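**Sequence, structure tokens**
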Amino acid sequence: MACIRSVDLSRVRFELNGVVATFHRPHPDKEAKPYQVRDARAFLEQTGVTP
């Protein structure tokens, strides 16, 4: 089960399968930057999620 917590106004903490990651919300644009997508993908791969 995943746990999602808002750390503050610009950060979100995810915990899935014992792996924890903190990400910044994209702002002012709503689109994620390439490095943010890369980091999110790496987090999912660490938790055992595959595309």
In short: Residues 3-46 form one domain. The helical segments are 34-46.
